[in-house]
Amino acid sequence: MSITPEHPVELDRRTVLRRAAAVGMLATPAIGLLSACATSGDDKDNEQVAGGTKSATNPLGVKEDAPIEVIIFNGGYGEKYATDVHEPLYKKAFPKSEVKHQATQAVSTVLQPRFAGGNPPEFVNNSGEKFLDFGALVNDGQLQDLTELWDAPSVDDASKKVRDTVIPGVVEQGMFNTADGGRKPFVLYYVSTVYGIWYSGKLFKDNGWTAPTNWEQFKALCEQIKAKGITPYGYAGANAAYYQWNVILTQAAKIGGTDVLKNIDNLEDGAWKQDAVKQAAEAWAEIGAKYSDKSFEGLKHTDVQLRQNQGKVAFYPSGDWLENEQKKDTPAGFTYQLMPVPSLTASDKLPATAIRAAGGEGYFVSSKSKNPRGGMEYMRQMLSKAGARGFTETVGAATVVPAGSEGFQFPPGVASAQAALKAAGQDVFNMLFDNWYKELDTEARTATNELMFGRIKADAFVERIQKRADAIKKDSSVTKFKR
Amino acid sequence: MRHGKYPFVIGFLFAPVTLYVVFVIAPYAQAFQISMTNWRGLSAPQWVGFDNYRRLLDDGSFWKAVQHHGVLLLALPLITIAIALFFSFLLNVGGKSSGGQRQGVWGAKFYRVVFFFPQVLAVAIIAVLFQMVYRPNESGLINGVLMKLGFDPVLFLIRPNLALWSIIAVLVWQAVGFYVVLFSAGMASIPGEIYEAAEMDGATKVTLFFRVTLPLLWDTLQVAWVYLGIAAFDAFAIVAVLSVDGGGPDGATTVLAMEIYRNAFVYSKYGYASAMGVALFFLTLTFAALTLRLTKRESVEY
Question: Which Gene Ontology cellular-component terms appear in the entry (chain B) (predicted)?
Answer without folding.
Answer: plasma membrane
